[in-house]
Amino acid sequence: MCVVGFHLIGCSTNDKNSNTPEGAFAIAEEYDKSERYEESIRRYTEVKNKFPYSNYATKAELAIADVYYKQESYAEAQVAYQMFKELHPTAPQSDYVQYRIGMSYYNQLPSTIDRDLTLANDAIFQLSELIKRYPNSEHIADAKEKRSAAIKMMAEKEEYIADFYFKREIYESALKRYEGLYNNYRSLGFDAKALSRAAISAKKIGDDSKAKKYLNILSKDYADSRELRDAKKEIE
């Protein structure tokens, strides 16, 4: 009689031969499917070590990365996928691996913009690599969506910092941040505010040429906006 529980996988595992690469990999898969992830990683690692020249060793390398990902151990998953990519640059799963590298970074991003967003740049770069190198990948649509979300987070962070300086009347720092917001994150919904606040900040520090420049752009592109009215009230 076969018992299936926390300690036993069941008859199927016992029937497999761990002395063959196929059997050893199948046993690791059983643990994986049963969500006994630590044991499955140990078993996949054994496949790699015992049968290094088998194609199952390569399959085990990718499976280990997938298990980390399923565990939501995204930092470990990123390293494992990256290692697989470096060891097997022409593997048929290359687009999937590239996608998972980007997603491993993306899934480490904080839920709020007031925290460190350093990994957003990595997520954007890796997802962009997928889009550029594998335009026909089935993961393109999700990669584009997640890349846009990461870029939006970066823009919101820039706005957050710019507003911090502006509210405290540290106008030179505010100007640099609003300029960065306008120049680097165009057409994401921040343009009018960035131009208005950049113009006001420039005026406050006595840089009349920049104040005029940004006010002119604002007048041209957002003629009926509240942001233009706010800037004119401060500058003219």
Shape: elongated
pLDDT < 50 stretches? 1-11
- The N- to C-terminal Cα distance equals 88 Å
User: Got a strand count?
Assistant: 0
User: What is the CA-based Rg, rounded?
Assistant: 26 Å
Ordered list of secondary-structure elements with their pairings:
Elements: H1 11-14, H2 21-33, H3 37-50, H4 55-70, H5 74-87, H6 94-106, H7 118-133, H8 140-167, H9 171-184, H10 191-204, H11 208-221, H12 226-235
Helix pairs in contact: 2-3, 2-4, 3-4, 4-5, 5-6, 6-7, 6-8, 7-8, 8-9, 9-10, 10-11, 10-12, 11-12
Features:
elongated, mainly alpha, 236 residues, disordered N terminus, 12 helices, 72% helix
Describe the fold and architecture.
Helix 4 (about 55-70) packs antiparallel against helix 5 (about 75-85), helix 6 (about 95-105) packs antiparallel against helix 7 and helix 10 packs parallel to helix 12. The model is unreliable at about 1-10 (pLDDT under 50). The protein has helices at about 10-15, 20-35, 35-50, 55-70, 75-85, 95-105, 120-135, 140-165, 170-185, 190-205, 210-220, 225-235. It has about 240 residues and is mainly α. The chain contains twelve helices and no strands. The chain starts with 10 loop residues before the first helix and ends with a helix.
Compact description:
The protein is 72% helix and 0% strand.
